[in-house]
# Entry
Amino acid sequence: MKVVILAGGKGKRLRPYTYVLPKPLLPLGKKPILDIIFEKLKKQEIKDVYLAVNYKENIFKVLYGDGSEIGLNINYLKESKPLGTAGPLKSLDGKVTEPFFVTNGDIISDINVKELRKFYEKTKADITVVTRKIEVPINFGVLEVKKDKIIKWVEKPKIKLEIAAGMYMLSPSVLKYIKKDEFYNMNDLVKKVIRRKGKVSRFLYDKQPLFDISAIEDYKIAMKSFKKNYKK
# Structure
């Protein structure tokens, strides 16, 4: 199975750290985030990896090369300009013939990619979006009003939401919807597939760990948790 890791972003919400290193190469403990992702893939006997790169791309190539030294087969999807989370995938059009896994380069999880593939095939989807559930605190008193009469007051409630987790299983057929060298995000692709009467399923991932290291606070939480629980 082939895996695409999206590693081309500038990581603006992680500055000043990302002035020095691209986001997937920020350290957690003694290892970069990307090393940890690679190790988790290898444990599932997944070795064919595409890295979508742009910002500081040469650092990736110097560190990993073709991946042979770390037991992987790494190819690079080079962006001449930022192409979003789906735009880089157009380079695979005509090159992949089976469903493939896509993950953001700042996501660390224990998702079983082969289990996801089986779910994707069972649902006969064009795209399967991995989701997770979160609780969002509202720091106000929330009122329920009927004809100017307050009938309920809930102080600082938490709203339960299901969100995209930054991981996907895609059919090669959906690549036709992406234009070459066009900035295109994954949510745009999903919405287009839905508009074209394709099928998009969801795979709920509710296990731990799941670190989405997209901002400074996320990074601090991951470093603290990783240091405590995931040294090995």
Summary: Residues 133 and 162 are 4 Å apart (CA to CA). The mean pLDDT is 89.
